[in-house]
Design goal:
about 250 residues; alpha/beta; six-stranded mixed sheet; five-stranded antiparallel sheet; 11 helices; 11 strands; about 25% strand; globular; binds adenosine-5'-triphosphate
Length: about 250
C-alpha cells in the first residue's frame, strides 16, 4: 500500500499555562484521509494539543508555546501566518454543540458569509451539500429557516459539523464530540465520520475507548503532557508496546 501523505506534522511541542507545563515535547504526525484518536486520562493535555492545531490557545493569557507545527508543510506559528485562513483549513467541533441562535440555514453558511459569499444559489448548494455530508439533511430539509436551537443535542452537533464542512476544510478537529449525546446520536456521528474520512483528515479526542477502536485508524496515547505511544489503533488496543498504555486501555487507571 502506498504511504499516506502527512497533512499535519508537529515536532517537540511544549505549552505552558503560566508556570505549569501542560505539554512536554509532543511530536505527532497526522495522515491524510485517516481518523486519528487522541486518548488518555483527564488533564493529560489532549484538548490543549488539539487546540494548538488551529491556534485556539492564542488568546489564553500567559500561554507560552514552543516547537513546530506544520499544516501542509507550512509553519502555522510563523509570524504573519493568516489565522483566519488556517481555521478555514482546520475546522473544529467542540464537546458541547454550539450552534448560533440563528436558523439552521444561517448556521451552516456562517463561514461563507464571513468570506463574503452572497450568491443565493451557491449558498443553497453549500447548505444542502454540507447537511448531507453531516448526515442530517433528511431531518432538517423542510425546516431550514427554523432556529438551530430548536433541534436536539445530537442534531445540533451535526449542524455544527455541517457548519465546519461548508467552508471546505482539509482537517476536522473534534474534541469529545459525542460525550454530551445519547448512544443513538453518538452512533450517527461515528458513522458520519467514517463516511467523511475519504475526503478529510480527522483528529478526535475521545474518552470512549470503544469509540476510538471503532472509528480510528491510528491512536495516540497521552499521559501527563507526553505522548507515550502512537500506532495503528488495533495495535494500541490489542498489543501496545508500553505498560502505561496497557494499564490505561484495560481500565487500570485513568
Ligand atoms: N486555560 C487554562 N489555564 C490554565 N491551565 C489550563 C488551561 N486549560 C487547561 N489547563 C490545564 O492543562 C492541563 C491539560 O488540560 P487539557 O484540557 O488539555 O487536558 P485533557 O487531556 O483534554 O483533559 P480532559 O480529558 O479532562 O478534557 C490540565 O492540568 C488543565 O488543568
Amino acid at each position: 500500500m502506498a504511504k499516506k501523505e502527512l497533512v499535519i506534522t508537529s515536532r517537540d511541542v511544549h505549552l505552558s499555562y503560566g508556570d505549569f507545563e501542560a505539554l512536554k515535547g509532543i511530536s505527532l504526525n497526522f495522515k491524510k484521509n485517516q481518523i486519528t484518536a487522541l486518548i488518555g486520562p483527564s488533564g493529560c493535555g489532549k484538548s490543549t494539543y488539539l487546540r494548538l492545531l488551529n491556534r485556539m490557545n492564542d488568546l489564553i493569557p500567559n500561554v507560552h508555546i514552543s516547537g513546530e507545527i506544520k499544516v501542509d508543510g507550512q509553519d502555522i506559528y510563523a509570524s504573519g501566518e493568516d489565522v483566519v485562513a488556517l481555521r478555514k483549513k482546520v475546522g473544529m467541533v467542540f464537546q458541547q454543540p454550539n450552534p448560533f441562535p440563528f436558523s439552521i440555514y444561517e448556521n451552516v453558511i456562517y463561514g461563507l458569509r464571513l468570506a463574503g459569499v452572497k450568491d443565493r444559489a451557491t449558498l443553497d448548494q453549500a447548505v444542502e451539500t454540507s447537511l448531507k455530508q453531516a448526515a442530517i439533511w433528511d431531518e432538517v430539509k423542510d425546516k431550514l429557516h427554523e432556529s438551530a436551537l430548536s433541534l436536539s443535542g445530537g442534531q445540533q452537533q451535526r449542524v455544527c459539523i455541517a457548519r465546519v464542512l461548508a467552508v471546505q476544510p482539509e482537517v476536522i478537529l473534534l474534541d469529545e464530540p459525542t460525550s454530551a449525546l445519547d448512544p443513538i446520536s453518538s452512533t450517527q456521528i461515528e458513522n458520519m465520520l467514517l463516511e467523511l474520512r475519504d475526503r478529510y483528515t480527522i483528529i478526535i479526542v475521545t474518552h470512549n475507548m470503544q469509540q476510538a477502536s471503532r472509528i480510528s485508524d491510528e491512536t495516540a496515547f497521552f499521559l501527563a503532557g507526553k505522548v507515550i505511544e502512537m500506532d495503528d489503533t488495533k495495535k494500541i488496543f490489542l498489543n501496545p508496546k508500553e505498560k502505561e498504555t496497557e494499564d490505561y486501555i484495560s481500565g487500570r487507571f485513568g
